[in-house]
């Protein structure tokens, strides 16, 4: 799919969003909605009988008034905004950057969207499009870090604190910005919806439980009663270690974006100042003030104090009693040297205040790496290379107690976000080609301690070059010689392979060479699924809709070009007979053997009123019919794009219900169930077999005469 076509796909969703947004005008919010005050607020009958939390915390107000992070004269507006529910925001998956009409926000809270009867259709639209990966329900301020990272398809990116995954999916979309290149160079549930083959998920469990940042008070109202300064004091050391490790991994010239959902300088400026100081010039804060025009933000502060949970203030480390040294650390204070402090340019940090643009609170700092960190000047050592003795780690002269914040046993890697990194890729490939790994197995390393939750992950195994499984697939779909079969993997080392996944070349190198150092939970994109009765056909594997846009550029056979009316029929009827489809479609399908097929709709630029973005669907050519294997929510998405509004009712088992205008594709026939035995067994994901009910809506869409039904044999 080209970038222009992807834009067309995104614009269509934006139009649908706009049409619904207009209908929301004038909808009542319920008693008390929008009123501002310090006490509990009742908002009609939509919130149920949950106990109300008083949005009041005197220690919080005292702390931030003393630190003066809010401009003079704006304190009341700041507090009023914090007491209001956070508006619902969403981002369109469009493979290009916000704010080009790809991010939207309403003045409605998420709770009202869920509970209001007047907004039921709009809520169903949001849920369905989110599940199919076309929309991400993402807080507005959370969209800022990926934009400031300025990621491009040739970059390698490490997201060190990824859950629940909204920023991760946004970053992956940037990596896939050039859709002409098949493989550019709640977390996993967010990623599989997007459907992209160059990311993997690694979990590292930490034995900590801490409250959310105070920038989230508008959506996590428990923070109001639980907030103390102890939260930030406990998090400071962990955040500094994570940031330090990230800086070590960063390529020279690359960017690192540090962000928190906290307004507290102990988690924000104090971490950045300590990191800059220990880097000894290897890092510098980038001036990004002009990169997001229109964004309102406050510059980072250069002076702050530290307060204990009982309200005791300290202005410098020397004044902290010894009994407090385990709770308060020297890195929490601003540097004493005025020249050193000025050279850090902490004012280049960005603090987002809730009342400035109706958002949550947020902090962002962008760092650029100028050279290697001072304690890690040596080039990276990979597996298979001799390890030379290392010099002892040098502690930062200003803070000797923080010298071990970085892991001295790990070498500095350059395979993280930033510039091209051909050196590290070539060296990794050399190690791989030397045969240091056996059989392409990159599954989890042997457990040395207790198994987390008692589960053992199945390994990821790359398909060997001589595996007899692949030639029938290659022949059946006439795959292009450039198809990277070495990037195919499965999750079993014995027995029948049920599903085949695909990753990029770069990700393959990472997986093969790091299996003993990390536990991979999930990776790749599903491209083929085994049919239960696969031996009865020329190929045992059918195409998976999840990976069809990745796989399609390599497929040279079994492609049927369909009309927009054909697409409507295929998505609303279970197994339409050939005679229900256009004669052009039948002429392409009649000579094909039974089995998996690709159904491709190409827009006609001479007909601007019709859908102007391509659609690629996985289908099955039966004895006398064609069916699609498309998940339910993806079906709904395509139908909306064609101007058909989907009803809330679910279809009854074994029936197909579709209400469409006469100018569309006509009523379905009663033979929709098709002949038995001509279709493969249903996939494990039963949503692929669910046909939605549809009804005509005022949403704009293509129209035209009904297709002529040729008298074709069944």
Automatic annotation (TrEMBL):
GO terms for biological process: tRNA methylation. It holds the Pfam family PUA_NSUN2. Residues 698-714 have a biased composition (Low complexity). It is found in: Nucleus; Secreted, Extracellular exosome. Residues 424-440 have a biased composition (Basic and acidic residues). One of its GO terms (cellular component) is extracellular region. It comes from the Eukaryota. This is tRNA (cytosine(34)-C(5))-methyltransferase. It comes from Ursus maritimus (Polar bear). The gene is NSUN2.
